[in-house]
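Example record

Each entry pairs one chain with its bound ligand, uridine-5'-diphosphate.
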Amino acid sequence: MKITYSIIAPIYNEIDNLPELYRRVKEVMDSHGEPWEFILVDDGSTDGSTEKIRELAEKDKTIRPVIFARNFGHQVAITAGWDFARGDAVVIIDADLQDPPEVILELAKKWKEGYEVVYAVRGEREGESWFKLWTASMFYRLIYQITDVKIPVDTGDFRLMDRKVVNVLKQMKERHRFPRGMSAWVGFKQIGVTYKRAARLAGVTKYPFKKMVRLAVNAITGFSYFPLQVATYFGFVSAGISILAIPVVAVLRLAGSHFFEGQATTLISVLFLGGVQLISLGILGEYVGRLYDEAKGRPLYIVRDAPEE
Ligand code: UDP
Ligand code: MG
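Structure tokens for the complex follow.
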């Protein structure tokens, strides 16, 4: 059977959200009347979500479970969804119902109008701490400023993509992934649809601060050389200052001034430059580590159970 819509939901310990997610997505998609499939990617859940997904899949063949051998992370789970999706349009949605499934209908409408990437923009966000809101807002703006692709701000992974786009994305095998950047990078006809992001239905966020930082670093290193360039700028600025400072200090000394005397000045400049050098080395390390990961060429994810064709 030809599938029109593939809905992908990455699942990491979402047992309390699964029944409601299934119910609401099914309601929306059935109202649409076109053939669809629901790809539930279990990203190494340990709370029984895996069994729940299997149980749902037993009863309803629209569900196609992809069960990972361990936790590979949200971005990789989305990637597996792309790999297994068969639909003409592919939708990524969070499993915690923060992305209301009803919005899929609006995304689909734009797709029918001819847009190839329809991303959902978070107009309002409910039930999130000011810290999350603030860091998220900073994150989107920072990424927008320093990366080479214009990744739409306030936009998560909730989006619909045409088959053509997904086929291109499937060829992008980079290990440290930032799907929303990747889907902006490919081009095609893109448009945003604003929606109100709801509060999480049950459970807690699977994105602690540390993971958010990793995601930000992936986004930045994946889409720009900016941090490397910053190191270069810093080098030029420090070198410039020293070129100006050396004659000044020499002249002051010859004139008998004791202004730059003592260990403190030496210590400050040595520590400052040492710090700058170590940071630059760390930045270089981030890129080299990524190169190393790419060179190893390991599979992106390991599937314990793949859905039937
Ligand atoms: N998720 C995942 N693997 C992970 C972390 C999260 O598959 O390692 C899934 C999670 O189950 C949810 C989606 O990614 O469906 C978004 O995660 P979450 O709601 O925790 O992020 P937030 O909305 O708080 O940014
Ligand atoms: Mg969420």
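The two ends are 11 Å apart (CA to CA).
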